[in-house]
Specification:
The protein is an alpha+beta fold and 456 residues long. The protein contains 10 helices and 23 strands. Strands 5, 6, 7, 8, 9, 10, 11, 14 and 17 form a 9-stranded antiparallel sheet that branches. Strands 19-20-21-23-22 form a 5-stranded mixed sheet, with helices on both faces. Strands 1-2-3-18 form a 4-stranded mixed sheet, with no helix packed on it. The two termini are 36 Å apart.
């Protein structure tokens, strides 16, 4: 899996890997970064990633889709789609037992060029959905230090371009960066930070690890070191005490201003709805550095986010469930559940009631989870038809429902009120011991290679 040894420790290496394996779509025509680029990308969502070689008005190409194909992402991590969350979970566990700390150096590819003037409009930042409020940076890894302890935090947030040197950011509730900012603001001080745009998959995965996997007192970038197989390299910022990803394509340096709010939004969010406009936090940009020949990386709201957050949620839920619930054989966060609202758990049932226990444990893996469905080990949890079939034929609504009212959820889910809503669990398992009426139909197993068949 060691990504560094396989030359996958930066975005260029990933693009080269995709190209060598015929897994890259190249768009040769010039495209407009306002709506057109995202519109073309949407037609390929879930297939091969796309490299837009010519973006009107800009020198740098734009790459999209690194995360929207789970099978392809598994190939990058040298595993299978089903085992990918287990690989991530193992890396988190390895980091927790024996952390591999990142190393900070003075120079790296990400600061080969220091822009003479700060001008965000020179970056090919796309305008994604038709009702978005502006251009958005949506794949940047934010790095800041705890204002009290100095512990480093990495996270990803949506960031609206407000001008040449100004960004507006949404700081979700319960995020570590928001906690850092609130404590800095209480002292009347800005919070220094960097935004690394165009990072490798290991860094991206580390930056979206749920709090249950990386508490506030830990530096989750060590998880990237675990996945890379060597210490992650960081570079010192030019204008503040924060650090940035050495192999990034661009680094934006700035500070979150205290007591300042400006309008931000709407933005096409993970939910499939627009995140609404509101008065939100402001970043003053102080410097921009980049590679000599950078490739701008952006994310399309949808399968990319569902895959990435789903994988990390699966890894977190897997570690919790297998530690507390006997017989768990699989965990999946469905695309229909936006990658982290619906958790599906597969168990080999050994006693009655264990399904409800699994529901309660699964809810603790991630506050955003709204629904948990537990099924037997003969159900394919990656097939929505199979899961629905289990719910339709095995769920006893009188006994199998778990309802939790007024619980903390995800504030971007429109079914909540300010992030507070009702969670529901479905125990769609057969009664234990399984009765004859629940025996599944089976057909004879045959080897099609022994038959002469036309028209396939």
């Amino acid at each position: 899996m060691d990504l560094a040894a396989r030359n996958l420790a930066d975005l260029q290496g990933v693009i080269d890997f995709l190209d060598r394996n015929d897994q890259l779509i190249r768009v040769k025509n010039p495209v407009d970064s306002k709506f057109e680029l995202a519109g073309v990308a949407k037609r390929f969502e879930g297939q091969k990633p796309v490299l837009f070689e010519k973006v009107k008005g800009y020198k740098a190409p734009v790459f999209i889709g690194m995360l929207w194909n789970r099978e392809l992402l598994a190939r990058i991590f040298d595993t299978t789609s089903e085992k990918l969350p287990l690989v991530i979970a193992a890396a988190v566990g390895g980091w927790q037992r024996e952390p591999k700390e990142p190393v900070v150096v003075d120079k790296g590819p990400a600061n080969e060029v220091v822009e003479r003037t700060v001008d965000l409009t020179k970056l090919p930042i796309p305008w994604h959905a038709l009702k978005d409020g502006a251009r958005y940076i949506d794949s940047g890894v934010f790095i800041a230090n705890d204002p009290d302890t100095g512990v480093r935090n990495a996270s990803i947030h949506r960031c609206m371009v407000k001008g040449k040197d100004k960004l507006a950011i949404l700081l979700d509730m319960s995020r570590h960066l928001r906690d850092y900012y609130q404590r800095a603001e209480a002292k009347g001080k800005p919070l220094p930070l960097t935004i690394s745009v165009g990072v490798d998959p290991a860094v991206y995965m580390a930056a979206i690890i749920p709090p249950s996997g990386a508490p506030m007192e830990t530096d989750e970038l060590g998880i990237a070191s675990e996945l890379l197989g060597e210490p992650l390299k960081l570079i010192k910022a030019k204008t503040n005490a924060a650090s940035a990803i050495a192999n990034a394509q661009y680094v934006i340096e700035g500070e979150l201003l205290p007591k300042v709010r400006e309008w931000e939004g709407p933005f096409a969010e993970v939910t499939g709805y627009y995140g609404l406009k509101g008065k939100r936090w402001v970043i003053k940009v102080k410097a921009i550095t980049r590679r000599k020949e950078p490739i701008y990386h952006t994310i399309l709201a949808g399968k990319e986010i569902w895959n990435s957050v789903g994988l990390l949620a699966e890894a977190s839920a897997w570690r919790l469930l297998t530690g507390l619930i006997p017989g768990v054989t699989g965990v999946h966060f469905s695309h229909g559940g936006c990658g982290f609202y619906h958790c599906i758990v597969r168990i080999k049932k050994t006693r009655e009631g264990i399904g409800k226990n699994a529901i309660l444990v699964a809810f603790s893996a991630l506050p955003a989870i709204k629904m948990v469905t537990v099924v037997d080990d003969d159900v394919d949890i990656y097939n929505p038809e199979e899961v629905e079939w289990a719910m339709a034929t095995r769920l006893n609504a009188e006994k199998g429902l778990v309802v939790i009212k007024d619980a903390v959820g995800h504030e971007l889910n429109p079914s909540t009120q300010g992030g507070i809503g009702t969670k529901i669990g479905f125990d769609a398992t057969c009664p234990y011991p399984r009765e004859e009426r629940y025996e599944r139909i089976q057909a004879k197993q045959v080897d099609l290679s022994k038959y002469q068949i036309e028209g396939i």
